[in-house]
Design brief:
Largest sheet: 6 strands, antiparallel
Oligomer: single chain
Radius of gyration: 27 Å
Number of domains: 4
CATH topology of the largest domain: 2-enoyl-CoA Hydratase, Chain A, domain 1
CATH class of the largest domain: Alpha Beta
Structural class: alpha+beta
Shape: elongated
Length: about 450
């Protein structure tokens, strides 16, 4: 292959998707001491020598793809080249059904870092946690691989096993986790009720998320009764993000007006600002949003919008801190390029890139031991005293008291399983009391 042909191929694959910008960049660079074309010429020289003189015959297409991978990986962890097969996989994932492990990952210090496992997937069931660093895949070191290469190694036939070696904060040494690959069917939103509170668990932001959310809110209202709903808990913990458009729609579902998010790229004249439309699906009821270090990207857009607009109380731990926007650019039949093109900002103008969103109420995840709830001593009250006066209750009063006791017992039990969620329920109960007293 001639050097001019190589240069033409590189220009067509890597730069052809953004020709006007490329022309503008070239004009500026021609005035600099270093001419970009000299480096492209150097690349052509190196490519030709590798092709001819390397000890073994090389795959020319793989060489070029690796060069493109290296170029994009040098920008940031989220820019990447997507060969045709990977591009199709990505499109399938945004539809909500795909084969794999069920984890969102990024690169950190040469290792694959788990942003979050997706609820109910093989990785989640096997015990993979947000923040885990994957050091080996089936015994092969991850160090030196690109993110795309590491992800490719984690893919495989449904039903096949994979062993990942994980370095987890707090663990004395790395350990292996065996996962059986499966077809991942993601239900983007799950709804349930606890007493008179609706709980909306949003696991990801794919093409189904807003539709599922709308249905979930309707189910909560039908089960509790629209007038009896005390509030909603929106659970964004370990939600790795997804489609920006869905994050905007979900935010809009809880807002009646005001800004949701703004995005700003290199050209400030192309900054975009998105505002909420009239109509709050939750009818202005109190909202508590649960977040943690596995809440990333689109999750942070929703959390930031509701926090800045004072529409919700954020409870939990600081979020992941991915505040950039990726644009997927098709490259004909050569796949696509995922390129970071903008930063996003919350309504108050905050960029959360690398900082994350701090909760309004910090509540670390933990499980309570029984000793925390019960010190072993029998409880005593006035009713236990000999000769104490009896309190005669009406049927309605007795029923109300029994319902209140049942709620407290259910919350106490939940504290053992999910302390943050139990805290959110207590908070909403307090808000409901305050709201009633203010009327």
């Amino acid at each position: 292959m001639k050097r001019k042909t190589v240069l033409a191929l590189l220009a067509g694959v890597a730069l052809g998707a953004s020709l006007p910008q490329f022309v503008a960049m070239t004009a500026a660079q021609e005035q600099s001491p270093r001419n970009t074309y000299e480096y492209l010429d150097l690349f052509g020289d190196i490519f030709e020598r590798v092709r001819v003189a390397y000890v073994e015959e090389v795959d020319e297409q793989k060489l070029i793809e690796s060069a493109i991978d290296g170029m994009l990986a040098s920008l940031d962890p989220h820019s990447a080249y997507l060969p045709p097969a990977n591009f199709e996989d990505m499109r399938e994932q945004t539809k909500g059904e795909f084969g794999g492990l069920g984890i969102e990952v990024t690169m950190e210090n040469g290792f694959v870092k788990v942003v979050a496992p997706i609820d109910g997937t093989p990785a989640d069931n096997a015990g993979v946690e947000a923040g885990d660093l994957i050091t080996h895949i089936d015994g092969e070191a991850v160090l030196g691989l690109t993110l795309s290469e590491a992800v490719d190694k984690m893919r495989g036939p449904v039903g096949s096993e994979i062993v990942i070696t994980v370095n987890r904060e707090g663990a004395e040494e790395p350990f292996d986790i065996t996962i059986t690959r499966d077809t991942i069917k993601i239900r983007a939103v799950r709804s349930r009720t606890e007493g008179n509170v609706g709980i909306l668990r949003i696991t990801t932001f794919n093409e189904q998320t807003y539709e599922n959310l709308e249905k979930g809110i309707a189910e909560v209202k039908a089960e509790i009764g629209e007038d009896r709903v005390a509030g909603y808990i929106v659970d964004l913990r370990n939600n790795p993000g997804g489609l920006l458009s869905q994050a905007i729609q979900v935010s809009d579902a809880f807002l009646d007006a005001g800004e949701i998010v703004s995005t700003r790229g290199r050209d400030l004249e192309e900054a975009d600002r998105v505002n909420a439309r009239a109509g709050d699906l939750t009818d202005g009821k109190p909202i508590v949003v649960l977040i943690n270090e596995g809440s990333a990207s689109a999750s942070e857009i929703v959390a930031g919008a509701l926090q800045d607009q004072r529409r919700a109380i954020l409870l939990g731990a600081k979020t992941f801190g991915k505040g950039s926007v990726q644009t997927v650019m098709r490259l004909g039949d050569k796949g696509a390029m995922k390129l970071t093109t903008a930063r996003y900002y919350t309504p108050s103008g905050r960029s959360i890139q690398s900082l994350g969103i701090e909760p309004d109420i910090l509540v670390e995840e933990r499980k309570l031991a029984e000793a925390d709830e019960d010190d072993g001593r029998p409880s005593r009250s006035e009713a236990d005293l000999r000769g104490s006066l009896e309190n005669v209750l009406s049927d309605d009063e007795r029923k109300q008291l029994e319902e209140e006791r049942a709620r407290h017992e259910a919350t106490a039990k939940l504290r053992q399983e999910d302390f943050q969620l139990a805290y959110a329920l207590d908070l909403l109960a307090g808000l409901a009391i305050y709201d009633d007293s203010a009327k």
